[in-house]
Each structure stands twice: as C-alpha cells, then as structure tokens.
Amino acid sequence: MRFITAALAASALSVVSAVTVSTDFESGHDTSRWGTFITGTGASATLDSTKAHSGSRSVKVVSPGGYAQHIFYGLSDISDVKAGGDIYGRYWANFQNALTSDHVTFMHMTDASQQALRMGGQFSVVDWNRAGDDSIMPDGSPQSIAGSVAIKAGTWTCFEFHISPSTGQIETWIDNNFITSLSTPQSRWGSTYKPNVSNWGLGWESYGSGANTIWYDDLALGNSRIGCS
Which among 63, 66, 85, 192 is most buried, taking Cβ atoms within 10 Å? Predict the structure, then answer.
C-alpha cells in the first residue's frame, strides 16, 4: 500500500458530531481516520496549495490513466456514520480534464452486495456504477444522458449524495441542483438494491486510458444533508 505523503499529514480534520466527519485540509490531521486506502501504481494523493475551494489547501490526486493507476483518499471505515442511519456526503472537486466518453470512477465505496458503489463518468456525464453487475445509472440512453451533468474542467463543483441502507434510496445533488437521473427509485435500479457500504474514497480510476488530475476540498460525511455552503 502506498501511504499518503508526510505533507498530507498536515491536512485538517474536524468532527462535527459523533456521526459527522469532515476535513478542509487546513491544519491538523487524524491519520487513524483519513488517508489513502485504495491505490494502484503510478498515482498519487498529496496536499496541495495551488488550488483550494476554501482556505489555502486541498488534496491533489494525479493518475496517469489506466485501471492499475487508480488511487482513492478518504475514510477507510465509516461504521460510525452507518450506525447513525442514512449516509449523506458532500465534497468539492476541480477536474483538470473534463469527463469524456470513457468510463471512469472518482468516488468509490466498497459494497458488500455489489463489490463497489461508484460515482464517476461515462458518455461525458456523471453516472453511478455498481461494480458487481457493471450496471450504470443513468442507463446511457440519450434521454437519460441529457438528464445528467457534464462537469466543466478547471472549475469547483459541489457534489452531494444520500444513500439509505434500509430503503435503497440514492439521491444526488450537483451544485445544489437535484439530479433526477442520478437518483432512485427509478426504472433503472428501482428500490430493490440496498447499498451496504463500508468506506468512502475520492480519487480517480479509468477503465480506458484517461489520465486526470483532480483537486478535492471540504469533504464531509454524516447523517443529514450537509449542503454546499
């Protein structure tokens, strides 16, 4: 395993409550909670001061592309958040390269029932993907793709999500806008799939050859909607 660099150990951690955890990378760091926990070869996650959504620092993820060159930074254990009920997440991301038609992942959650629940891109828009059956949401039809979002390069974008382990509901907001095509129940996934996730990581994994550099900032996970402010 490639451990996070010493520079990143200076990133910030704040625990808002027993089941809400956040970091803005500004000062202090609890390495028992935050760090790189999924990594391949050739990729890196380091503290960076060239871009920040707030304050002066973010975490910079660099991947040369290709499946083996993946990396994810975040929380390797979210059992305390799961114990509180529904899971809500918020993060800001700044992509050097816009999403293309390639299939990629930039958010990874290990899932006991589907290997992994992933947020990423395909058809040049944001999608959800289940690793076990490789099913995507939206379904890839022109109508569904039109209902998703194409992320602009070089700009800060706010991603929010809601996962209910009990009902199977998944909801997605991007820049405070609710995205119906990235939310259930719907004909694509319905309500029978109930995510059973154990961690939360942000990074980059390409199933083609798409290289990218992404800055992540103001990460938060809890039991109620966190918002983009």
Answer: 63
